[in-house]
Amino acid sequence: MVKKISSAVLFCVCSSTAVGVLAQSDGGNGWRLQPEFSVGGGYGVTKLKDEDFNEDEAAKKAFALVKFNEYIGVETAYIDFDKARNGQVELDPTGVTLGLVLEAPITQRFSVYAKGGQMWWDADARLDLEVAEATDNYDGDETFWGVGTKFQLTEHLDFKIEYERFNFDISRDEVDVLQRRDINMDVDYASANLQFTF
Questions:
Q1: Phi, psi for residue 175 in degrees, rounded to 5
Q2: Strand segments (E) across the chain
Q3: Which of 10, 57, 66, 5 has its CA nearest to residue 166?
Q4: pTM: predicted TM-score of the whole model, two decimal places
Q5: How far is CA 21 from the centre of its chain?
Q6: Burial class (CB in 10 A: 0-12, 13-18, 19+), 63
Q7: CA 172 to CA 59: how far, in whole Å?
Q8: How many Å from the N-terminal Cα to the C-terminal Cα in the chain?
Q9: CB 12 within 8 Å of CB 6
């Protein structure tokens, strides 16, 4: 997990450096690179969609974004999901994402965007076996996607509303014989975010 997080951060840093060098020259083709770097955080509500896990929870995230120009960027984020429970299993997942962002400016202060990429997740689990309790850890990687809107509040501060879809897939055999089937949990995440651009 640490190696995956380090790779994602290194990729964004290298991308930012490379774009900064390329931006020193303009090829004259109308596609001028205008790199910018942003950081931010958000808070929102998740909806768990699974026969066994069916509840609303909260989630917090922090993210960093490198924009190559006003249309294309790469974003990495760390998301702390709330605990999810069913009769036998309690999961406490976190995730790191790396994705491509495609943005369409509507006005000078308002834009819409879509994004998609990969999430690497890790979940601490507590198993209630009726006669005893046990703890375990699971991890995996899944694709994700999202859409959002961005409103410019000040020159450097933006307000973003996002909807994202994630997935957690754990085999029944990995959990416990008391788990009736595989855990294949879709998670809808609606969040409000503040983004600061340097």
A1: -90, -75
A2: 36-49, 56-67, 72-81, 84-85, 89-105, 110-128, 133-152, 157-170, 183-197
A3: 57
A4: 0.75
A5: 28
A6: buried
A7: 25
A8: 29
A9: no
Alpha-helical segments (H) within the chain: 2-22, 172-175
Separation CA 4–CA 141 (nearest Å):
10
The DSSP call for residue 82 is: P
Task: Give the pair of three-digit tokens for residue 109.
Answer: 């202060």
The letter for the amino acid at 46 is T
Residue pair 48/57 in contact (Cβ under 8 Å)? The answer is yes
Contacts of 193 (CB under 8 A, 6+ apart): 40, 41, 42, 61, 63, 159, 160, 161, 162
* 137-190 tens-digit pLDDT: 888 899 999 999 999 999 999 999 999 999 888 765 555 544 455 677 788 999
**Using CA atoms, how far apart are residues 99 and 16, in angstroms rounded to an integer?**
15
